[in-house]
Amino acid sequence: MKRTSGISANSRRVVLCAVVILAVTSASVAAADEAAGPFGVTAVVGATAESARVGALFGADKAGSLSGNHFCTASVVHSPQRDLIVTAAHCIDSGGDAGLVFVPGYRDGQAPYGVWKIGKRYLPDGWAHGQDEDSDVAFAVVDELGGKRVEDVTGSNRFAAGVATGATAVTVTGYPDSREVPVSCTNRPVPHSATQQRIDCPELTGGTSGSPWVNGDHELVGVLGGHEQGGSTPDVSYSVVLGREAAELYKDATGG
């Protein structure tokens, strides 16, 4: 199942089963470490410093009418220029020059941290030359807004290639296309293959492509996508194993 709902998702969106909703407290969304819990439960995310780093993607033509029009998820990662987001390659490879915007902390049609125009996109060769599912990760630069850079407004997670799958639990945060708030789930990833990792989390439906997998050290160690562009069911999700190709792509995107 493709986890991207498409830029025109609002016109063909199907209402899916409701996500399990927990009380929004520090206990309701587990930190990604071995002592935390509950694992494998999907919950609505409160407005926190951590959730501000995650946002929804929209077509630029929807910038003035956000409600119901998001189609993928992205998140801010640290970079020297403080202007970089990461998502799944299939989310921003539109096959043309269609404009996109990133709305960090999006909630109920509102943009509490602004609407940021996406500029240059960085796609790995494996995706650009054949849409290889083992290359389904991408970076994009976002333009300044009001003289500020996105990382200075929202904070960021650190991009971490080469972390062993399942070394720690991770928290996956994203925007299902049937909801106007972000949800998250914490669990321990397991290998699917040498190049793909998977996680068991319920109700990560269309729109969650590009969701960050973040460990307890605020390191981004996965991006929802990859195998079957995220998974064929909403209860099992995938990510590319972030290895050499992803590290080189990050280097390109940061000018390093």
UniProtKB/TrEMBL annotation:
GO biological process: proteolysis
A GO term for molecular function: serine-type endopeptidase activity
Keyword Amino-acid biosynthesis belongs to the record: no
Domain of life (superkingdom): Bacteria
Pfam families: Trypsin_2 (PF13365)
Keywords for this protein: Signal
InterPro entries according to UniProt: Glutamyl_endopeptidase, Peptidase_S1_PA, Peptidase_S1_PA_chymotrypsin, TRYPSIN_HIS
Signal sequence range: 1-31
Entry annotated with the keyword Signal: yes
UniProt protein name: Serine protease
Organism of provenance: Streptomyces fuscichromogenes
